[in-house]
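Review form for a predicted model. The reviewer records the input and the model, then writes brief findings.
Reviewer: anonymous (R2)
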Amino acid sequence: MAPMHPASDSPSEPGRRSGTPGAFGRSGGGTGRPTGPGRPRTPGTPGAWDAFGPLGFQLVLLRRMADHQPGLVEDALRELGVDRSRMREANRRWQAALRAPGRRGAGPHHRSVLGPPEATGERHVGELTFEAATWRVPLWPDLRFEVLTAPGGAVWNEWLVRAPGAPAPALRTVEDLKPWSCTVDEVARAFAPARPLEGTGPALWRLVFTAPDASGNRREYTAEFMWGLLQRFV
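Model under review:
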């Protein structure tokens, strides 16, 4: 099952947070506290992305999740040592840089913001071949941020996936599905056959599946995932 649409340029337990590739068309933790971004330059200038930094990128991920899990986002902001205004500013800068005249989309800029990827390779979705690159995300040491890029540089998909060798959660009942504990791919495989739905915004997925509760009663659920990470039931 392939990602439902190309990634758009627009973009709840703390501590050891959790996401494995496979069911959504793909084959086959950082240490220390991340450093903050430098003084921002005018979005669209060559140095705008270099000044952004890994911390700013994590704040962009959190800003999109704040609408779904505000409590967990607050915990993460405390862990990073920043407040909500810093998060909003990081997101504003990210969007401004993406929309700047002459920009080439998000694809070429992940390396400027996050540095060299931890791993690269190819992913095949049907007859299409994409370049896959993954980066560590200190807030979620068991996950990696994966970007699939089509020939020509357009970003096809970007989301959090389980790091190679990291243990995936045991998903047997709906009670096992805790916010931020598992990825869309893991839920789709654990409760197959699952049916993806079009999300209501960029980087947002919905998945319909049938799962038992702790008493063994089965029913249909719809779950939302932001950046590929479980957020809530709808």
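Findings: The first helix runs from residue 48 to 65.
Further findings: Residues 1-16, 19-50 have pLDDT under 50 and may be disordered.
Recommendation: see findings above.
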